[in-house]
Amino acid sequence: MLREWGGGHEHAGVGALSLASDRDPLVWSRWKGYLVKKVVFSILALALMAPLFGCAGAGTGPVSGWAWADVRGPVDSEGAVGGKTGEACATSYLGVVAIGDASIAKAASNGGIKTVTNVDQHTTNMLGIIVKYCTIATGN
């Protein structure tokens, strides 16, 4: 099933052995199945861990939490806090799909604000599986 290169005098490591696929196709089919399983498992593991290392996992708050985060923080301020508040949110699922409009304009529109004086943000992160980012606009 396996044959040695170099007359058997080399160390029997990975480089010293080759598949005798020309002699036994069954060995090659088993080896190929093993490789396919390893590649599929590796790709799946990377896909599941990707949100933990990207923007979806870290959030954009003043602090971040890997397992859970529920954080509010400032973005911009140009005076006293106004009497009206509006919020606009965007949500990411597994760091693969993201939907929503978290713009300041949308938050101002949702709150009926004509002059924005302060902008805050609120980030919620659950293991990078679901990450929600909200922009909170205040003004008059």
Give me the secondary-structure topology.
Elements: E1 2-4, E2 17-19, H1 25-53, H2 55-58, E3 68-77, E4 84-93, E5 97-100, H3 104-111, E6 116-126, E7 130-139
Antiparallel strand pairs: 1-2, 3-6, 4-5, 4-7, 6-7
Instruction: Say how many strands there are.
Output: 7
Q: Helix count?
A: 3
Class computed from helices, strands and strand pairing: alpha+beta
Q: What percent of residues adopt helix (DSSP H or I)?
A: 25-40%
The end-to-end distance, rounded to whole angstroms, is 80 Å
Tertiary shape: rod-shaped
Strand order of the largest sheet: 3-6-7-4-5
Strand fraction equals 35-45%
- Unreliable sequence segments: 1-13
Order of helices and strands: EEHHEEEHEE
| Oligomerization status of the protein chains | single chain
Overall pLDDT level: 78
State the major sheet. Answer: 5 strands, antiparallel
Over all CA atoms, what is the radius of gyration? 27 Å
Q: Quick gist of this model?
A:
This protein is an alpha+beta fold and 140 residues long.
Structure characterization notes:
This protein has 3 helices and 7 strands. Helices cover 29% and strands 36% of the residues. The N terminus is likely disordered. The radius of gyration is 27 Å and the shape is rod-shaped. With 140 residues, it is α+β, with helices and mostly antiparallel strands. It has a 5-stranded antiparallel beta sheet with strand order 3-6-7-4-5.
Features of the shown structure:
140 residues, alpha+beta, five-stranded antiparallel β-sheet, two-stranded antiparallel sheet, 3 helices, 7 strands, 29% helix, 36% strand, rod-shaped
